[in-house]
Amino acid sequence: KPDGVQRGLVGEIFKRVERVGLKIVALKMVVPTEDQCWTHYNKNDEWFAKKGERTVSERQAVGLPVDKPAIEYGKDIVRALVKFMTSGPVVAMVLSGNQAVGIVAKLVGGTEPLTSDVGTIRGDYTLDSYGLASLDERAVRNLIHCSDKPEEAQREMQIWFKPEELIKYR
């Protein structure tokens, strides 16, 4: 994500990925487009409503007004992500190896940096939180994206890379 590039943490992220034995099979630096980001995040109304309800609860808990439907607050999350992701360069990469998706999730840590375990990329390098990001009306700065499951990784790879850009090597 842009904050990982801006903070000069790309090398550290590569180091952690390679240290566990995963292979980098595709790599490039790009400034994402809005269309790429909306396609990448691929959320539906159910997701927007669920996340929006959390935002409504957080706003009410700190005495802020709730001035739109929960689903719009949910859409604001992706709008903020798109704004954040298009703000500067990101390093897109595809990793390969046994149980790569699960291993990467373990290395990266939970989505909210504040609750990520020490020893994970997010736990070691950022202290942001959902609550702070919501109050600031911005995306959570959590350095890196990782796919939740192999099918999602396959779908996301097609957004960022052409098939011929994936290098097969031993």
Q: What do these coordinates show?
A:
It is a single chain. This protein is mainly α. The protein has 9 helices and 2 strands; from the N terminus they run ααβαααβαααα. It has helices at 2-6, 10-19, 34-41, 45-61, 70-85, 100-108, 121-125, 130-136, 150-160; strands at residues 23-30, 90-96. It has a two-stranded antiparallel sheet with strand order 1-2. Helix 3 crosses helix 5 and helix 4 packs across helix 5 (70-85).
Briefly say what this structure is.
It is built from nine helices and two strands, in the order H-H-E-H-H-H-E-H-H-H-H. By secondary structure, it is mainly alpha-helical.
Largest sheet: 2 strands, antiparallel
Rg for CA atoms: 17 Å
Going by helix content, strand content and strand pairing, the class is mainly alpha
Q: What is the distance, rounded to the nearest whole angstrom, between the alpha carbons of the first and last residues? A: 28 Å
Strand arrangement in the largest pleated sheet: 1-2
Shape: globular
The proportion of strand residues reads 5-15%
Which runs of at least 5 residues are low in confidence (pLDDT < 50)? none
Number of helices: 9
**Mean pLDDT rating:** 95
Strand count: 2
Helix and strand sequence: HHEHHHEHHHH
Helix content: 40-55%
Overview features:
170 residues; mainly alpha
List the helices and strands and how they pair.
Elements: H1 2-6, H2 10-19, E1 23-30, H3 34-41, H4 45-61, H5 70-85, E2 90-96, H6 100-108, H7 121-125, H8 130-136, H9 150-160
Antiparallel strand pairs: 1-2
Helix pairs in contact: 3-5, 4-5
